[in-house]
Amino acid sequence: MSGSVPKLFQPIKVGRVELKHRVAMAPLTRYRADGQHVHTDLGVEYYSQRASTPGTLIVTEATFIAAKAGGYANVPAVENDAQIAAWKKITDAVHAKGSFIFVQLWALGRQANPQVLKEEGFEYIGVSDIGLQGKPAPRPLTTA
């Protein structure tokens, strides 16, 4: 084997971000946010640990764009000040280790759990009125 570094461990530029290597952490939903979809300090610890090798790219767990676009309990969101502040703590911890974090945004539509949406006071909607097997039909989105 030659003395050259395998491509996997060579730097790469992604947009404006210069990664030290090409190994990234893929998104893994953890269900560790509180009942208001706010990440807890456990999230800071979890992501900080995974940022231990400087220059690493971490893609976060699926994160609701809004609670009404969700439909699962204990999944984080980025809709209000408390949720954003919790993600800022995580982002700051990852950056402090010299690594990078991209958020995976999530809106479930008809794949949401209708019961969770109901408990949180939200309507079950989708792009059409065709429900998934075993689920009721969602209210379809319209342009009106």
From TrEMBL:
InterPro entries associated with the record: Aldolase_TIM (IPR013785), OxRdtase_FMN_N (IPR001155), Oye-like (IPR045247)
One Pfam family linked to the record: Oxidored_FMN
Gene Ontology molecular function: any one: FMN binding
Residue stretches making up the NADH:flavin oxidoreductase/NADH oxidase N-terminal domain: 7-121
Name of the protein: NADH:flavin oxidoreductase/NADH oxidase N-terminal domain-containing protein
Organism expressing this protein natively: Antrodiella citrinella
